[in-house]
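YM 10:42: Aldehyde dehydrogenase sequence, as discussed on the call
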Amino acid sequence: MKHTVDGAREAFSTGRTLPLTWRRQQLEGLERMLSECGEEIREALSQDLGKSSAESQLTEVLSVRSEIRHTARSLRKWTRPRRVRTPLTLGMASAAVQREPLGTVLIISPWNYPVHLLLMPLVGALAAGNTVVLKPSEMAPAVSALMARRIPEYLEPEAVVVVEGGADETTRLLEQPFDHIFFTGGSGVASIVMSAAAKHLTPVTLELGGKSPAWVDGSADLKEAAESIVWGKFTNSGQTCVAPDHVLSTPELAEPLGKEISRAIIRAYGTDPQQSGDYGRIVNERHARRLAALLEQDSGRALIGGDVDVAGRYVSPTVLLDVPEDAAVMEEEIFGPILPIVTVADHRAAIEVINSRPKPLALYAFTRDAQVRADFVERTSSGGLAFNTVMTQLAVPALPFGGVGPSGMGRYHGEYSLQTFSHERAVLRKLPGPDPTRLVRAPVGRRVRRLLVKR
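YM 10:58: structure's back
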């Protein structure tokens, strides 16, 4: 493992990753790979997660290609030195902020979007001029093997290295010094990553998750809200970090909303979602059993769904009503196709519930009430906030994506990715001319001393 990391460090030390031409070549190579290997990618995603070709193309391939194009178009502007004003006390001088690459970075990706969440941060790391060690998830073995085989064919092999394997390989990687570690996954492993990074004083970006709530009130269009929630919640069988984890609504609205969501599920996946070509599978039997256990506990009344086939890695789209706040499904991130609806008195009570829990990665509110929107903006904290839609905040390249508190630290997408993988270096140049700092150099005269004391 040391040899692998040392090789990436040696590639960076040559300076060949610094020119914009090299960075553009890598981005172009990455886009070619996504285009030319599209069928292989979709097949691997089908094997690992049962994803349909349409879902794979939209959420895993086209999203990364869009990021590549946006970054390539803006690269020169984002990397240009940014002039800043200097104080008069420095006399004639110029100052600028220059973005420079960090060096060699480690990107550890999860299994739920094994292409998107491996390559999206890679775009920013390459655009910033770094060399990269990639660690795909062993829980998506088909995608991991494909990335290990194809990436060296399209990107410079010495500069972008793929390391396959499980926890042992990840542990050995974390023992090596890196200039930045970018991790996407759960909070448990994030603690291990952060502890390992601390030994080398390595900065980290942690993209985690949490229980992302959605508020729906009587001013919303229930049918539109239901269809949006169904799309966001049940895409990838609920295995999405920014999916609505649960819904908060009023007692009189809960059942009508639940029935509207149930109808939207049937419109999307039919009466038997297990036979739908658009409905995916749970990543493995262990996670299917975990979700089955949640349904077996006292977690409310199933309005639709509740079916589990552990061997087939299938859990049906499920909507739960009459869910108490202390139910098992409300204790941890569900990360699956189970949607509890919890009742509260009004939006202020919903905000109190939200604020009583760890800050979520995403927060959604379906409302047409301007005061309700203002209260959510002013009185809550989350990685992102979206009104009358779910997940589409990720489609805006100028918006940062990242968590806050337990839902993560750091941010990326667009220019924020370049910031994450760059060091913003302060550059000052003293120009010929009078130098006011001479007045405060030793020995300091009596008059200057008095002026300094008065200030």
